[in-house]
């Protein structure tokens, strides 16, 4: 079926779509094939194929193209899958709200944060929220922005404190908090620790610990290496964990890269030494991120008030 010259109104489209079709497309996204998705949902292959055809007919566009013996999402399929992930996220958020009601209103808040926000502003906001709602359950995920946004889209998190990045099918709002400079850190007895000036080349003699590829911090670091016409060091250790990075740095001659605010706090406690090297650029501003069109719980709304008040 080719593209159909027809555009539904929103009520018409909602009337034609079925949640089982949403489940099928999301299962194909996670499992990779129509047959695997059919087994996961307890459908026969013909029934799954019919359901997919009905979905394409309802939307008026083909979502997949034949690729050998399988199917490959086209541009429309990518967009629809992204929006269906957002639908699942909204349903997950609703489920959490209803669970809070069942528990007598104490509630639960699940948020995600990048490392830079954790030492000060985030900590103060969480303590103030806990003071106001002693029985509330709070779950905090600390990771890179790209990974946290994926969880935000799935409804696992309600709010993310991080940097905005494209997320297919979901529009988000960023409320700015601060910029973020990076620091190279080393052990207190590292050969570079006492030097007042460090050319970039002097850093290349040591192994590095970096965040995984795809994160904004990693992109900035790779840009710094390209600027100096240098390849990334061989034998990298890649981790998004600040605790792992600090433990490795403190007990070796490895160099780590962490937010300057985090490095300053660890340096004040005599744990690591920020080196005298400055990156050419800072990361884009980070802030609170929430999905457009997804209602916030009262707890999340209050958390945002406290976060931006500090």
What would your notes on this structure say?
The chain is globular and about 70 Å long. Residues 1-5 have low confidence and may be disordered. The strands form three sheets. A five-stranded mixed β-sheet has the order 4-3-5-12-6, with helices on both faces. The protein has a five-stranded mixed β-sheet with strand order 9-8-10-7-11, sandwiched between helices. Strands 1-2 form a two-stranded antiparallel sheet. The chain is an alpha/beta fold and 310 residues long. Helix 2 (19-31) crosses helix 3, helix 2 (19-31) packs across helix 4 and helix 6 (118-132) crosses helix 11. The protein has three domains: 10-73, Arc Repressor Mutant, subunit A (Orthogonal Bundle); 85-179 and 285-309, D-Maltodextrin-Binding Protein, domain 2, CATH 3.40.190.10; 182-281, D-Maltodextrin-Binding Protein, domain 2. The chain has eleven helices and twelve strands.
Compose a concise summary of this entry.
With about 300 residues, the protein is α/β, with parallel strands linked by helices.
Tally of distinct domains:
3
Biggest sheet, spatial arrangement of strands: 4-3-5-12-6
Q: Structural class of the secondary elements?
A: alpha/beta
The CATH superfamily label of the largest domain reads Periplasmic binding protein-like II
Strand content: 15-25%
Helix content: 40-55%
Rounded to the nearest angstrom, the radius of gyration is 24 Å
The number of strands is 12
Please count the helical segments.
Answer: 11
The CATH class of the largest domain is identified as Alpha Beta
What is the CA-CA span between the terminal residues?
A: 55 Å
Order of helices and strands: HHHHEEHEHEHEEEEHEHEHEEH
Average pLDDT across residues? 85
Main beta sheet: strand number and arrangement? 5 strands, mixed
């Amino acid at each position: 079926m080719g593209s159909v010259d027809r555009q539904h109104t929103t009520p018409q489209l909602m009337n034609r779509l079925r949640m089982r079709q949403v489940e099928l497309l999301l299962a194909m996204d996670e499992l990779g094939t129509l047959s695997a998705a059919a087994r996961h949902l307890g459908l026969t292959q013909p029934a799954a194929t019919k359901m997919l055809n009905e979905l394409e007919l309802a939307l008026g566009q083909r979502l997949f193209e034949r690729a050998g013996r399988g199917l490959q999402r086209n541009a429309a399929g990518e967009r629809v899958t992204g929006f269906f992930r957002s639908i699942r996220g909204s349903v997950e958020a609703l489920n959490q709200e209803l669970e809070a009601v069942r528990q007598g209103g104490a509630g639960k808040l699940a948020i995600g944060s990048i490392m830079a926000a954790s030492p000060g502003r985030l900590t103060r906001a969480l303590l103030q929220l806990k003071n106001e709602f002693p029985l509330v359950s709070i779950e905090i995920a600390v990771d890179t922005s790209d990974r946290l946004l994926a969880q935000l889209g799935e409804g696992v998190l309600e709010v993310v404190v991080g940097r905005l990045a494209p997320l297919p099918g979901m529009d988000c709002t960023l409320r700015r908090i601060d910029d973020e400079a990076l620091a190279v850190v080393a052990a207190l007895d590292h050969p570079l620790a006492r030097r007042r000036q460090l050319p970039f080349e002097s850093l290349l003699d040591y192994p590095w610990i970096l965040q995984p590829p795809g994160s904004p911090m990693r992109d900035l670091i790779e840009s710094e290496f390209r600027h100096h016409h240098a390849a990334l060091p061989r034998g990298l250790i890649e981790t998004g964990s600040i605790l792992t990075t600090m433990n490795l740095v403190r007990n070796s001659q490895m160099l780590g890269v962490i937010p300057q605010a985090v490095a300053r706090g660890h340096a004040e406690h005599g744990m690591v030494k920020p080196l005298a090297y400055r990156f050419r650029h800072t990361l884009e501003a980070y802030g609170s991120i929430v999905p457009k069109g997804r209602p916030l719980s009262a707890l999340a709304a209050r958390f945002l008030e406290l976060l931006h008040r500090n």
